[in-house]
């Protein structure tokens, strides 16, 4: 085999091995983080996150619409992440929106018992694989009162996440706090453009339009991703070395 061809084969093998060994960031969460169909305007902030990384393949988004910590576990979605984890990887875990739905036995959890227990399982099993768990509080819904003040909607769940983070001594991306400050600063009317406030007739699949104060369009998803990245940098997490 000619020397040049041998060199090219060896280089190709080395690059393939390097790519396989590259650390990955796994995302576990709900619809506010999840990948969305590109023929609709809705975007999860996890979709926008890869743009901040040197290697776009770093981000492996396993977040899924409608999931809570309970349903994410029971459907085997968490096990898929654990199976894939390699030493040096990281996992951002963001739940709360659907754990709040206590009337649904397949999704609802108790913020004092089952919810933190599920979070501790995520932490424990991530660490067992030599990877780094990172907890995130849920992003705020766009809900303002008559005086223009943002209204919290997540009850005791964000504080439960903060407690687990402190007790387990793991990083926390406080996205509830960050998104609250952002939405409050911009105000009620101005923040509609970041959410699924869609005019009738603009999209064939949403002929009647939509007014959704939970889910983001591209601009909102990108903003939340930037807030997460800012906290990663501020806390000097090892993950920051993977950023552009």
Any overview of this molecule?
The chain has 244 residues and is α/β, with parallel strands linked by helices. It has one domain (23-242): 3-Layer(aba) Sandwich (Rossmann fold). 39% of the residues lie in helices and 13% in strands. It has 8 helices and 7 strands. It has helices at 3-21, 45-49, 69-74, 77-84, 114-128, 157-168, 175-186, 218-234, and strands spanning 25-29, 59-61, 90-94, 132-136, 172-173, 195-198, 210-216. The strands form 2 sheets. It has a 5-stranded parallel sheet with strand order 2-1-3-4-5. It has a two-stranded antiparallel ribbon with strand order 6-7. Helix 6 links the parallel strand 4 (132-136) and strand 5. Helix 5 packs parallel to helix 6 (157-168). The longest helix is centred in the N-terminal third of the chain and has 19 residues, at 3-21. The chain is globular, with a radius of gyration of 20 Å.
What kind of sheet is the major sheet?
5 strands, parallel
DSSP summary: helix tally: 8
- Report Rg: 20 Å
* DSSP strand content: 5-15%
Shape: globular
How helix-rich are the residues, as a percent range? 25-40%
CATH homology superfamily = SGNH hydrolase
What is the spatial order of strands in the main beta sheet?
A: 2-1-3-4-5
Q: What is the CATH level 1 assignment?
A: Alpha Beta
Q: Which CATH architecture is right? A: 3-Layer(aba) Sandwich
